[in-house]
Amino acid sequence: MNISIVTVGKLKEKYLKQGIAEYTKRLGPFAKVEVIEVSDEKAPENLSETEMIQVKKAEGDRILGKISPDAHVIALAIDGKMKTSEQLAHDLDQLATYGKSKVAFVIGGSLGLSENVLKRANDTLSFSKMTFPHQLMRLILVEQIYRAFKINRGEPYHK
């Protein structure tokens, strides 16, 4: 399986980079994982509704430009579907079983995802009703993908 994580913004924190690198390495036997960063849109602190839409659209266009046309897209969103680790594992297993070998997870910027990205998504996923920094979500996501593969293989990592 080829998994891409398309995300807005650069990751600067060394500890997060190390954690993501560790889980990406662990995923090596199961899937090819690629993190694709697109630049965030520079914007002032206080935005009007129109300006927020423009920022999300600009970031969304960059995101869509990095997604393969044949990819199954899962957008991370606060109001997405909440799933257990086992449910995510089942979903990834079903995608592989039915020939969807390209999966793209999308993490938006600080304002969220544009309507165009949400329309392109085949599914949405929420890890919590809480808001997390999108840089931290990368680490949480890659760990959950690793956990999903371990669950599907019946291996003891998941308890």
From TrEMBL:
Cellular compartments per GO CC: cytoplasm
Keywords assigned by UniProt, alphabetized: Cytoplasm, Methyltransferase, rRNA processing, S-adenosyl-L-methionine, Transferase
Keyword Oxidoreductase: no
InterPro entries: Alpha/beta_knot_MTases, RlmH-like, tRNA_m1G_MTases_N
Signal peptide: none
Ligand binding (S-adenosyl-L-methionine): 76, 108, 127-132
Family annotation (CDD domains): RlmH-like (cd18081)
Reactions the enzyme catalyzes: pseudouridine(1915) in 23S rRNA + S-adenosyl-L-methionine = N(3)-methylpseudouridine(1915) in 23S rRNA + S-adenosyl-L-homocysteine + H(+)
EC number from the UniProt entry: 2.1.1.177
Keyword Transferase: yes
Cell compartment(s), UniProt: Cytoplasm
Enzyme class: transferase
Gene3D superfamilies referenced in this protein's UniProt entry, alphabetically: 3.40.1280.10
Main location: cytoplasm
NCBIfam families linked to this entry: PRK00103.1-3, tRNA_RlmH_YbeA
Name by which UniProt lists this protein: Ribosomal RNA large subunit methyltransferase H
